[in-house]
Amino acid sequence: MQEPRLQSRSQNPLTELSELRLECLKDEHVTQLVCRLVFGNMLFEYGDREYQIGVLRAHLRLTMEGAESVIGTAFGDRLLEDVVENDRLDTMSDASASIGANASVDASYGGNTTAKIGGEAKRTRSREQNKHYLPVEARPNDSWEIRARSVSGDSSEPIEGTAIPGATLCEIRKKSGGNRFAITGEVQVSRRSIEVKAKQGNKLNRSMLEWRNKDAIISQILKRAIARESANSLGGRSSSFVAISRSEVVEE
Amino acid sequence: MRLVEDYLDHEDLRAIKAVYESNTPRFDLLVKASGLDPKRDFQHTNLRNLDFCGADLRGFDFSGSDLRQSAKNSNTLIDDTTIFGNAKIDWIDRDSLPIVLKMQQIEAVTTPNNRRLLLNELTTEFGKTPHVVTYMISAATNASDLETFLDFSGFIPKDLSAHQFKTLRGKAQTLLKKRLSRARSRTGRERTAIFSIDSIANQLRNSPSSLSEHIYERLVKVVSEKQHTISLKGMATIEPNDLTEAFARIGY
């Protein structure tokens, strides 16, 4: 009998706003649900006005048929809230030493790679590169919340960047007795979380006073268009939530 | 890759055009022009810092929306058909803020005479308090043409900080350059710019104890230092470069 194949399908109708892709990686012991989730902003220009469209907060929600997540394996349960990938290179040398004479490379699991070059320390040069991902927090019942990365705690900035960089979202266990295996992930945002900002600053001037109401109405028109596009592609859910991306893994 | 324009249908584009080209900032009239539905399209949305003065909000449903810091006045129509369920409200009552109202009237006028009249009322009624002076400096700094800048500078006092002088000097120089360049471009001749000078000098001359007078004093000094003026024993001619030099001396 032929082994059932797992097929992945993703729908990202608002291509600049969000991308969700789910895949299952199976070995003889576990099935890992691997996820890539990235957010961006869209720009719209009309006349001399420019609008930036983004989302302030999003939820990734999984629906499973014939499967369940394994306790303790959820992304965000195990990792720090704001994932940082660190790549650091320290170089210590004296002026006459041949650099690299005592070089050793130490690579450790978890995204940290450190290369150290030994020698008599007279001058130290250090280069460090950090890659930050958006904060992702595990929520109850196979859902996750993604917020904008903000040092100041300002929640009015739209989410932009990678939330989950092709990492294991959770491990999956097949339920016994089920005759269908399907996992659907959906990125949902509340209507209030869709942020349309006029990119003209907020100085108190005549232009701002004249355009404040106009910008708000044009923003509503843009939001309506986004909600309609999403409903046409992904189906409507409720009046207060909009699905912007969907990905599913089904056994065929 | 699909752009925002690809999600907008004919009706969306018509609505955006209607709002963009509308002559009124009144909220309800803009909504009517846009074709948005007051009962549906203003729920769960960000409506902060908007101006609802004079607007007929009967029949609007603002459920779950954020209306904080939005302004209304005694002409704003709200009754039991206006729905605010779970909305965040923190109205600014324009009627109780006459100074803000006056400033907004100044921002809204389009003719110089009305602007000067209202500026006169503002400074007579409320005095040249730090608040009023800060507003006038901000308005002058945001002026889009030299005439507007000089209207405000006629009411700004001379005793300003070095930083304030620096800000105003930069703006004045930019606007003067623009004005002279526009005058030259009409005929393509340098001497045509002279026709602009007379009105600028008159505007500066007729504003005692103000930033305008401060600029005029510098203009007089620049002109009287000229070799040509000395040789004509005090008979002065003002040239575009003299104004440029005088504006460069603002604050010195």
From TrEMBL, chain B:
<dbReference type="Pfam" id="PF00805">
    <property type="entry name" value="Pentapeptide"/>
</dbReference>
<protein>
    <submittedName>
        <fullName>Pentapeptide repeat-containing protein</fullName>
    </submittedName>
</protein>
<dbReference type="InterPro" id="IPR001646">
    <property type="entry name" value="5peptide_repeat"/>
</dbReference>
